[in-house]
Amino acid sequence: MPTTLLWGTANPEGLGPDYNGVYLSSLDVTNMVGQIEQARLEGGKIPVHIEHKGVEVGRVVSAWEHAGTLQCVLELDETVLEGAIGGEFVRSGICKDLSLGYTVELAQSKENGKVRMRNKKLKEISIVKKGARKNCHIHGYM
Hints:
Strands 5-6-2-3-4-1-7 form a seven-stranded mixed beta sheet. The chain is elongated, with a radius of gyration of 16 Å. The protein has one domain (about 5-140): Serine Protease, Human Cytomegalovirus Protease, Chain A (Alpha-Beta Barrel). Strand 2 (about 45-50) and strand 3 form a beta hairpin. It starts with a strand and ends with a strand. It contains two helices and seven strands; from the N terminus they run βαβββαβββ. By secondary structure, it is of the alpha+beta class.
């Protein structure tokens, strides 16, 4: 099966442990690595998309933390048209960045009414022209 493997930074360094917002904290980055590993162990997968749209063009193969960032290896399936297009987007430099698609649960405290962001769940990773976060680049492919 023709595939393209690529490696990149999917999230910059996580924010501090007291951070309460929609971006990822350092703990959230660790949890995302765990979610990817858990999906792999259970025979599932985290899909790859182009610009967070359309059909699945591949899957996340592995993930790890490096200096607080989320690093990933993605596999694009070039046996399907969209995967072949995605591979060409990466090779030609049209898509140079990665972007996470995840959900965030909001919980309001009964004591003080403050809202907490929690249970961030990774849904997909996309190859994109320009990521919303700094330094989330594709570093190499083969």
